[in-house]
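Risk register update: the risk of archive-format incompatibility is retired. Evidence:
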Amino acid sequence: MESQSRGFDFTHAMRRLCADVVARLPELAHVDLRRVAISMCRTRQSGEHGTYASLTPLRFEAGARQKKLRGRRYGVERVCDAAGEEYLYILSFYVPRFLNTSLEEKLSTVLHELWHISEEFDGDLRRFEGRYYAHGGSQRHYDAKMNKLAQRWLSLDPPEHLYDFLAYSFEELAAEFGPLTGAHWPAPRLVPL
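Archived output:
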């Protein structure tokens, strides 16, 4: 945990948690977190309704760098780390909403978003057959699978210090460790080519 005088670096804590998740679960071994930007987005309302997290792919289908839309070619604005390495995804968590759920819901949400990363790790989403390509034919089935994966990760006995901050609500975390800080990556724009 971070000291109260400096606040709590939320995106750093989430990166460490995600790194352990992908290291312990073979189904996510393809994820290279060095190419995933982790973002903290502030929400105006803390209620349970709305988005808790999202994964933004930074490439088009099958990792394509450009796509024709309405008769014109577009690319996605590049998003790079401090060393100039290009990210392929932005993983965003919406606080306080995300933090005001149960520990189980938070872990399931993390798995839900990491599972969206394509197995090719090419900047595109994992795609399912049919009309509902992001979650497959049943959102309920997808969510149940993510709950099982989260429970399996916990059963592998990860160090508690990696996820103990998720036991707190937003208000409790700020009261205990100071204001939340973290990186924010705005959604990239489509750039006409």
